[in-house]
Amino acid sequence: MASSLTCAGVIWAFLSFLCAAASCVGFFMPYWLLGSQLEKSVSFGTFRRCSYPVRDESRQTTVMVEQCGRYASFQAIPSAEWRICTVVTGLGCGLLLLVALTALMGCCVSELISRTVGRVAGGIQFLGG
């Protein structure tokens, strides 16, 4: 199995993959903000939420749904800032995964990553982060 990476490049590839995986897990988990509402513990992230209030029209009250789920649509995300954060964070995670998987392929394929490609990948990682 030939590699186009130096020892430092192999370490960079594996650390890149670990960081990209951690970023993606953090993006998909709904535990960005924790608090309580109606005496229940609630949490939410950019596009997921746990234990959220809904209006019960039959009883004319607000009840807590004690489950995790996504927002029904992109427009259902509470604010424009959270929508922007969802898009920017999602794009960043995508870029980080793209670079990390390319770097891991460079560990197995010779002549895949050159010095220029490595520099461009580092710049993409900087933007993704």
Automatic annotation (TrEMBL):
GO terms for cellular component: membrane. Its main location: membrane. InterPro entries: LHFPL. Coiled coil: none annotated. Keywords: Membrane, Signal, Transmembrane, Transmembrane helix. It is found in: Membrane. The chain crosses the membrane at residues 87-109. Gene3D superfamilies: 1.20.140.150. The keyword Membrane applies. Residues 1-21 form the signal peptide. It is a multi-pass membrane protein. It holds the Pfam family L_HMGIC_fpl. This is LHPL6 protein. It comes from Bucorvus abyssinicus.
